[in-house]
Amino acid sequence: MTELNASLPETGSTGAASVALRIAVLDNDSGFLQVLDKRLDRLGWEHRTMAGPAPVDEIVAMRLSAIVIDLAILGPQAWEYLERLCEAMPGLGVIVCTGRSSVAQRVRGLRLGADDWLTKPCHPEELIARIESVVRRRRQLESRGASAPVEAGELVIRNDHFQAFVNESAVGLTRREFELIDLLAAAGGRVLEREDIYQRVWGYAMVRGDRSVDVFVRKLRQKLEQASPDWRYIHTHFGVGYRFAAELREGADIVPDAPPADFVVDAVEESAALEA
Which domain, by its residues, includes 237? Predict the structure, then answer.
């Protein structure tokens, strides 16, 4: 076991660790589960281990804080199951904890709605810390759920639905994409640095060279442009980060809902219109 670098501070129990959570672990690694179960018992967390996929409605009924999933035991249905679970429970923290994987697999899992991805073998303490981080972010997001929707251009961002809408039609954002646009929109037009975005959306410090923020911004822009082509919402500040502001695209032909406040109809034109 690798010793902790002596230059780092000693770790102690955190405030988050003292909060009892209810989690499920979808895994069949008996050795790993034995160590993890003992640690969760000491924390006082309610936890349930499942060796195979449970129906999504059964997961919903458990009222979980988070779920840990080893995709390897799900076989060919792994991606479909992950997507259905995330769509059915947008407020559930989902952590994938599985064996070696490719970058493409990790990106796909995160885009389908997973909050975090941890590669085995891993230490149970790191998994617990990741669970706490995910749950903390979910609760912070939910605490804003009662706030009024954010309206910008044609876009309406609703925390209570974890979704954005254009003309009452859902844009189809994943949870991570929603967290990203919700964070940018709440910044009040300020530019947010990439590192700050990563820390607040992913929950930990960004590794040098990580392009996750740029990838998710690009996907988010594509969906916004498809749903609301006459407006630009996310603006790049090269070398710094991103800013949210609804701006009409050059040449966009938008018909106003009402005439300007100082608009006066010519009396002759008004009379002719009435006679017609």
Answer: 150-248
